[in-house]
Request: fold
Amino acid sequence: MVTSMTTKDAATTCDLAIIGCGLSGMAAALFAVEKGFSVAQAGVSGGMIFATGLLDVMGTHPIETGHGWVDPWAAVDAVSEDIPDHPYARMKPEIIKESIASVISFLGKNDLPYVKNGELNSEILTLLGTSKFSYYIPQTMWEGVRALKKKRPCLIVGFEELKDFNAAQIVGGLTRRWPGLRWKNICLRDTINVSSFVSGDILARDMEMPGNVKNLVRRIGPHLNGAEAVGLPAVLGMKRHRKIIETLSRELGVKVFEIPTTPLSVPGLRLIEVFTEGLAERGVRQFFPERIVSWKNTDGAFLLAAGRGTGKKWIRSEGVILATGRFWAHGLRADRDKIREPLFDLPVHQPEKRAFWHREDFLDLRGHPVNRAGLSIDDQFRPLNRAGIPAFEKLFAAGSILAHQDWMRMKCGSGLAISSAYAAVTAFSNMKAPHRKIPRN
Amino acid sequence: MRTQALIIGGGVTGAGLSRDLALRGVRVLVVEQRDINAGASGRNHGLLHSGGRYVSTDPGAAKECHQENEILKRVAPHCIEDTGGLFVAVEGDDETYVSDFPHLCRQCGIPCEMLDLEEAENLEPALSSKMIAAYRVDDGAIDPFRLSLENIAQAQELGATLLRDTKVVGFEKENRQIKRVQLFHMHTGQKTVVEAEQVINAAGPWVGEVAALAGIGIEMLYSKGTLLVTAHRVTDHVVNRLRNPGDGDILVPGGTVSLLGTTSVRIDSPDLITPTVEEVDLIVNEGSQMIPTLKGIRYFRSYAGVRPLLKVGSNLDDRSVSRGFALLDHARDGLENFATIPSGKLTTFRFMAEKTADLICEKLGVHAPCSTRTESLPDSSSGKWTEPALGAKHWFNHHAKDPILCDCEMVPESAVKSVVNAIIEKGGDVNLLSIGVRSRVGKGVCQGTFCGKRVSALLEESGEIGSYDGLIDIRRFLQGRWSGERPVLWHAQIMQAELKEAFYCGAFNLEVVSDGHIHDDKRCGNNL
Reply:
C-alpha cells in the first residue's frame, strides 16, 4: 500500500472539492468558502469565455410558446409548477434570490457592478440585432437597456478589426422598431496600434493603454450626428472598464454602453478574472487548468486525480460538487448509442434513443429533447444512481449538467448555475459542521 | 420571352446540355426551381466512376463510365482530383465476386490492376487488416458544384439565360407541339410565359411531375441515398467495397474531407428528404468493416439525395436498375418538341447531354456537331470558390486587410465578395444559401455557426441588397445546415451543435425573435 500512502500524503485535503470552473463551479466555491469550508477547485476554462456577462434568471416559458416574461420570479413560479423536476422546483424563490444577490455583491466588491430593474427583467439588444430578456445586467451595458426602452437616437459603432461585431448587423435587425438607431464601422488601425484582426481580449487590454481612449473619442465624435447614446463592442478594458466608459461618456457628451460579443467574450473574461482572483484570496486552492480524470472513494472520502501523467495531482475531500457542465465542457459525453456522465458514470436521464435527441427544425420552439438530458437529483442536489437513490452521500451536482431544464431556451442559465451551486453547498453544510466558522456580515 | 431550347432543371444534366447546345449556337433558356445542383446533382459522392462499380450489374453503364472518365479528365481537369481508386474485399465477402472482378473489368475494357495486400496497405494505411483482396482502378473525385457552375457559366457567356427559383407550372399545347411554357417565380409569385421551339425535361427526380403537366405519364422510382462527411480526409484514393453494390461501401476523398455512403431506400416522393439516424448508423457500421477508423472518426454532416430511376418491368432491387441513361422522345407520345432525360449518372452527364443535344439539334435543323468531347471546359470565377483549399491559398497571398469569414474552410471576405458579384452579374438572388452553393461557406466543422453570422453581416453592411432581411436569411441558412447535422450529433459534433444553439438561442434569442421583437408578458409592466 506504499503507493496509496504516497498519494494520500501528497494530496491536497479539503472539506469540499468543486469540479468545474464555469459560473456554477465558481459560485459553489464562493458559497463554500463563505460558509467556512476549506475548498479545492479544478477545471478547464469554463463556459464563461463564451458568456455574454448577462445574468439570466428565467426568460421564456413555456418554451414552445416562445412566451417571454418580464417578471422572472413569476416565471420561476410557473416553471416550478409546470415542470416539477426542473431544478428551480427544488428551491424556494427566496433562496434563488439570496444566492444571486450574494454573487452580485461579491462581483460588485471586485469592481464588476451589476444593475437591474427592480425585481423585473430588462430587455437588451444582442450582437445579432435581436433582443432578449435578462435579469442582472453588467453596469457597462445598462445604458443600452435604457436607450432601447426609450428608442433614443443611438449610434452603434463597430471596429473592423473585430470581425464578429458588425454594427450594420445590429442595426439591420432592430431598425424597424428603432428607427433612430444608426451604425458606423470604424477602422482602429489608423487610431490605435492594433494588428489587422484581433480578438476581444487583446483589444480590451489595448484600450487600457494611455491615449487610446482619447483617440477613440476623436474617431467616434464626427459620427455622432445627434445620437444621445453610443453602443460599442464589449471590449472597453479588461479591468478599467468603468473608467474607460466614464471617460468616453464625458468626452463624447453622450451615454456609452457595451454590447456583448462572441468569444473570447470580454465580459466573460472579466468574470473569470474576478472569480479566480477573488476566490484565490479567500483561500480556495485552485487547480486550473486541470481536468479531474479519475477518482477513488477511500475511508469515506473522495480522492480525485487532477490531470494526467507526471503532473497528476491529488485532492482529498469529504464532499464533491460536480459542476462539469454539458457536452461542450465534457460534463456529459454523447456516444453514438447513449449519453454518459464520464467521471462517476452516473446514470443520465435522456431520450430513449439518438433519433429522439434532436428535432428536425433547429429553431423548433419546443427545443431539442437532448438539452433536457442530464443528472437526476434528490432534494439535496445529490445525483441519483441506477436504483434511484443518491449515488454517494456527499456527491452533489450543480449547473447545466442537471436534467429537466433547457437553459438555452428557457434563458435560465446563470440563475440555475448560481442557485443550484448554493443549494448543493447548503446541503453539504447541513450534513457537516465546518472546521472553523467565519462570521459573516 | 422566346427561346429555341428550354431546359427544365439546373442540375448537372441541364447545365451540361445548356453548354452543349450553346456551343452549337442554339439559344437556350434554363429554368431551375431552386438553385444549381439543388437536387441529386448536389447530393452525391462526387465520384468519377472508373466503371468498376457496374461491371457485374450493368456492363453497358460500366463502359460508358470508363469512356467519360477519360474524356472528363482531359476536358475538365480543374473539376477533378485524379485520386485513383481501390476495390477491396474483407473477410466474409463473396470470394467468387472477388475472383470474377478482373475478368469482368477486362470484358468492359476497364483497366484494373491486382495489388498484393501489402501494397494496398502501403497505399492506404487505413484499410482493414481483414482485407483479403485489392484492385486498383481509375476512379477519381469530381466537384459536382464546380462542374455545373462552369458548364452553366460558359453557356451564359454564349448567350444562354438561367432563371433560378423559377418553376414550370404549365404547358400550352397546340398541334402536337408545346407552344408556350408557363413559369412561376417561387419567391415573387410572378408568372411568365415563354415560347420555346424545343422543351427538354431534365428535372431529375421531378421529371415525372413535369411530364405530367404535359399530360405524359412517366413512371419513376425514387431511391434515397444518404452520405456522411468526415471531419478530415481519411484516404487519398476512392475506396470501393469489392462486392455487389450495397450500403456504406464507397469512400471518396473530397478535398479536405471524405464522403462515405450510401444507402438505397425506396421512397414515395423525391421532396423533403433528409438523412436519418438509422441510415447514418448503418453507413458507419458498414463502412468501418472496410476502414475500421470510420467507426470512431468525427463526422460533421450528412446529406441525402434521390436517385431517379425509370421504372421498367419489375424493379426488385433499386441498385440493379440500369443507371445508364434513357432519352425519351415524346414524339411517340404525341408531342413533337418535348423530350425527357429521366435518369443518369454524374460521370456520364456529358454523354447524356451530347446525345440529347443531337436529338434537339436534329429537330431544330441545326447541323453543328457536338464539341464538348474535345473542347475544354473554361475555368471561371463562377465555380472556382467551391474548391476546398483555394480560399486559404488566396488569403496567404492577399491577407493584409482581408478578414477570414469562415475559419473552418478559410474563406476570406474577398472570396465572398467575388461570389456575391458573380451572382449579381447573373441576375440571381444573393443570400446565405446561394453563396453557400458557390463557395465553401458553411461547409466546415462548425456548420455555419460563425460564418453564417459574419457573411450575413457583410451583406447587411454592403447595402447592395435593398430588401435583405438578415435575421430571416440566417434562420433559413441555419435550418439548411441543420438537416444534415442532426443525424451525426455525437462526440465532438454534438458539442459543436450545443455551441451553435448557445449562441443563436441562448445569447441571441433567435428561435423566438424573427424581426428583432420578443413577445413579452403583457400581464407584467416594465417600469424602467
